[in-house]
Amino acid sequence: MTSSTKMGRRSFLKKTALGGGAAGVGVLAAPAVMAQSPMVLKMQTAWPSSNIWQEMAQDYVTRVEAMSGGRLKIDLLPAGAVVGAFQVLDAVNDGLLDIGHDVPVYWYGKNKAASLFGTGPVFGGSASTMMNWFYEGGGKALYDELTQDIMGLDIDGYMAFPMPAQPFGWFKNPVSSVDQLQGFKYRTVGLAADLMAKLGMSVAQLPGGEIVPAMERGVIDAFEFNNPSSDRDFGAQDVAKNYLLSSYHQASESFEFLFNGLLMEDMEPDLKAILIHGVEAVSTANTAKAARRYSADLKWLQEEAGVDVQRTSKEILAAQIEAWDELIPDLESDPFMKKCLDSQRAWVEDVVFYELMNAPDYTLAYEHYFPGKLKL
Prior knowledge:
Substrate binds at residues 166, 187, 224, 250. The protein is built from 15 helices and 11 strands.
């Protein structure tokens, strides 16, 4: 982007913030008019309008508008309204969108290191562990190095909502061994695609809205997306009845909030703070909503839709870890990816030691009060 283009957009943004570029004296003389003319920001997600994640994005919009006292208004759009689900990053960078809501793995095709910010190797930490790494363990600085220095993008990104580990997915027939996976046409994204290829599957990387139609046409015959609510929203239960929970392929993902760099540079400091810290606020709200909705929808899938819910076998989980071991040396041939992985390993070694040593056996307590429910 040229400096003249940046200056032109910067001037436009300032005029917009002042109510459409009226003369400065006139604007200052009419603060009541200013208060009635909020800055309108365009935000698009990577999710269909019917998906729970679109609702989670709306939770962010609601909080930002409330905290700004009406000075900010966000026009929230679903995937495809301006660009496709995998093009959100480009659209924010180019100024077609002010804010994007996606996951880094959706731009994995631009740089494989994107996958390390949510769908990389699992060293023993959860999604909460890795989001904590982003904010407290140096991850944000590495993310900025990737997006701004290496890729030359004019964006500022933040993570929210550490997601529960993603299920291994949906299968037409029961699956319990690695041998049974051979030749499966399977949907996933990012480095998980390389991981599943190591297990003998043929992988298609598709946005969420294309999964069930691809299953119906036979383009794929097994898939994962993320969680029971989204899977129910997509109609996964209509094309498969075997649902395997627990997997190492995407066990540490979070949402990504993308902000256009010029927008943030010109934003009033208090409004900029609201946009950024609103990400932290909605992370808590999304986590609470997921606990309620994911659990209720999993129960519905079992009791109303006739889905057989099982845990992925220990054989397959062990094979996934071994597959990560094969992939990591290749990833570390890239100096930046090695720097990220070294940082993540050091963080997990330190903080997860405390977490695991300190955590009581919650399974023991659950089975005591709700005997016979778990299928382990």
